[in-house]
Write a sequence for this structure.
């Protein structure tokens, strides 16, 4: 391996203390295609173990000022939610897995008290929340599998953006990060809850 390749495979990322798994997503400003890599901690820095892979971003690219409905993917470093979701059966992830059923929604209504959370309502009923809320079980292939990026999660700020997922790629997204299904499943199987994995979204 060349010196350049060795240097490219090791990096230091501030603000990632306490975690031993990291996913980085990097792209130029306004780009809708990004480079995604997976890393494990190596001392005070990180060693790449997978990637770089091509990922897709929101139709408006990356933004440090994400707002509901703007089509942007938020920049920053975030934890991944404790549950992986999917329309399909569990592909072998180590996180808790919830297979989506009729009535499973993500509340994307900024005026709702449960904004930016997973909600289940009785199948066939209209939820109390509106806006751009998604009937998760109907969105395929994007939601065959997805992990939640804990953006705008603690505390939740109305209108700051919701439903930022890592899901199956079908072109540019509404603000999520997406990968081809084979790559996504590989990544989801790699993630370990005990590693407190982070995802870092940044402009190159």
């Amino acid at each position: 391996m060349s010196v350049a390749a060795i240097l490219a495979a090791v990096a230091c990322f501030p603000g990632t203390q306490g975690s031993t798994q990291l996913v980085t997503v990097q792209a130029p400003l306004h780009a809708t295609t990004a480079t995604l890599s997976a890393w494990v901690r190596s001392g005070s820095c990180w060693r790449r173990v997978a990637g770089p892979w091509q990922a897709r971003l929101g139709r408006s690219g990356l933004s440090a000022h994400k707002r509901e409905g703007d089509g942007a993917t938020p920049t920053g470093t975030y934890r991944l939610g404790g549950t992986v979701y999917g329309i399909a059966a569990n592909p072998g992830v180590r996180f808790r897995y919830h297979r989506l059923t009729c009535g499973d929604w993500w509340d994307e209504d900024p005026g709702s008290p449960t904004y930016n959370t997973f909600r289940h309502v009785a199948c066939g009923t209209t939820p109390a929340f509106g806006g751009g809320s998604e009937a998760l079980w109907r969105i395929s292939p994007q939601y065959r599998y997805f992990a939640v990026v804990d953006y705008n999660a603690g505390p939740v700020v109305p209108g700051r953006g919701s439903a930022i997922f890592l899901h199956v790629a079908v072109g540019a997204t509404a603000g999520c990060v997406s990968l081809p299904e084979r790559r996504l499943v590989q990544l989801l199987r790699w993630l370990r809850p005990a590693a407190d994995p982070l995802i870092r979204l940044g402009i190159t």
User: Anything to note?
Assistant: Residues 1-7 have pLDDT under 50 and may be disordered. The radius of gyration is 17 Å.
